Amino acid sequence: MCANYEGFFKKFHETIDNCMDDVTRNNFANLETNSKRVAYLCSLPAIKSYDLRSDIEKSETGGEFPVKKDLEKARQLKDEGNKAVQKGDWAKALQLYSQSMVFVPRKETEELSILYANRSAALSHLEQYEETLSDIKRCLSLGYPRHLRYKVYERKARTLLVLKRNQEAITAFQNTISALDEAESLNKEKRQKMRTDAKLMLEILNKGLTLAGNPKDPEPLKKTPPKPKLPGKNNPQYPAASEAIQIDFDEKKGRYATATRDIQAGETLLIERPFSGVLLGEYSRTHCQNCFIKCSIPLPCPNCPNVVFCSEKCSDTAQKTYHSYECQILPLLWKSGCSVTCHIALRMITQNRKEYFNEISANIDEKPTGVYKTSDYRNIYHLVAHEDERTKQDFLHRSQMTVFLVKLLEISGYFDGKPREKPVEIDELKSMGVDEKHNEAVALIGGLVLKNLQILQFNAHEVFELQCPKPRVGKNIIKHNGKSVFLAGAIFPTLALFNHSCDPSVVRYFCGPYIVVKAVKNIKKGEEVAENYGPIFTTVPKENRQADLKEQYWFDCTCVPCQQNWPLYEEMTENYMRFKCDSDRPCPNVVAVPYDCQEFMIKCGLCEQHTNILKGLKSLQDTDMMYKLGRAAMEEGKYGEAIKKFVEILKLYDATLAPPYKSYYDCIQDMRRCMLALGNYSIV
Ligand SMILES: [Zn+2]
Ligand SMILES: [Zn+2]
Ligand SMILES: [Zn+2]
Ligand SMILES: [Zn+2]
């Protein structure tokens, strides 16, 4: 993820750079810890006198600031929603009511309850019955006006009938009848008719239930996809990984993953939640702030109009931890133009209380032993940061970023241990300095933020979803044709231990907030299991791959394609087949056999023994047909079936041939596309 310094931070960065004379620069360069770097910079007069107000006022992008809800706007959107209803456009109404909710101030509970009631009507027309019930529940808990309640109780009853939850429907009809007593604005006749109808329904339902022996209601349908699970056992030391993976260490490579046994293509090797993950600003009103899934029926934050959640569960998690601090400062972050990496560095702090960092700070430089937990900040702290190789300019730039993030933490109330309730006033930004009473916190937390920024440079991952075009009526969604779209940045502590290869043996995709890593190749016991940090050898020439990796990750790639100068996909020859040496005592050599070869005993150039290629050719003769079947299944959206076929083909290939060759990578590429189609997606 590359940094993007447009927005007001760029100006701040340049101004401070220009203000620093040689003495200050030297002082800074001589500092040895992250804590001291941040504390020193914070103490400089140039920082203390830096006034952000006009920059923020000028900035038009990145959300409203100061953060405030807007009742008028909410009402306007609601009216538009009501108009859509009159036209019978329920889908449009659903959208407009959702947009309206975002702007309703927290104290306007009645206004919000009416919106939930209206949205439940739209949902019921759109036959989204479980969601209808959820919105009715929200509406009632917010104190929907008593004289209108008969409407939602009746809607609830009818919805439950559709879902065959008859016992609950009985209660809802009873509630309708009592609520009708309070329906003052309803005229007598209508009231009487509704009452009679409800009573009739009750009679029918009771009779039916008695006849059927009073069966229990069916369970409500669960919409949230189940948490993905590793098929076999976990690695006891690294529980996010399968027992087929172990983490090894050597001085040169650091920590890396290897296979503890033969692994078959298609196997799930790792499932991990991010330690921290941050949604990009541009998706904050369409995707869940907490789990990144697209919300067609969003729940807004009660305090700001900037973010939405997919469920009460995600909303609670966020409000109890990071979002209560971030709520008021989000537009500042977005307006600053800092990269999502900076935001993750901040989130790594706001999601835990200050006391947590106080507690662990004493021994933080000792690598924790014991089970490697995803949620343990100390594991993140010990990921690669290359602190010794950094230049003072690098430290200076990142420290300036940190000063800004620390300022935001102060404003958010984090240092006081209590999220602020009042909106931020613009005058609070007339200085980038932090109140001296927070000096200790600035040194500790600022030092960690600076460390986070360095760690994230090498260890962050992109979170993406497939965006697929609306399918034509009667057609399946052809998800494998979707486009991968970058939604969020995140850090996965166990996955971060995997090294890079330009010919990776795994693919990663997302299931809700979880990252799922699967083998796309057969991997032999003892082999390294590598993922990919960006460039793939089949499409990017070696010089470019090496340069990219060096620039962003600071290492020289020594993967097999890099060492052996493997050709790009386009340049792979189709003139001969690459047989594995298969003599009585096979050697690691590749025996090149032209397609029009007339012999069947071919001498290996290395061990000088003979390989009988007839056996191999025979086992490969069906692979073309099998590949066609796999492709056909994929085109029909039968991804599981397609993957099975591709796995079978790879097994046959691997028994006889040695990569690289085109049909091998065709098969891997299609298997990868099928796997991506199993992950998060949205229809656009
Ligand atoms: Zn969510
Ligand atoms: Zn908020
Ligand atoms: Zn490489
Ligand atoms: Zn040989």
From TrEMBL:
Swiss-Prot/TrEMBL TPR repeat ranges: 623-656
Domain of life: Eukaryota
Listed GO biological process terms: compound eye photoreceptor development; methylation
Classification via InterPro entries: SET-MYND_domain_protein, SET_dom, SET_dom_sf, SMYD4_SET, TPR-like_helical_dom_sf, TPR_rpt
Coiled-coil regions, chain positions: none
Keywords: Methyltransferase, S-adenosyl-L-methionine, TPR repeat, Transferase
A GO CC term attached to the entry: nucleus
Region of interest: Disordered: 210-238
GO MF term set: histone deacetylase binding; N-methyltransferase activity; protein methyltransferase activity; S-adenosylmethionine-dependent methyltransferase activity
Ranges for domain SET: 243-534
Name of the protein in question: SET domain-containing protein
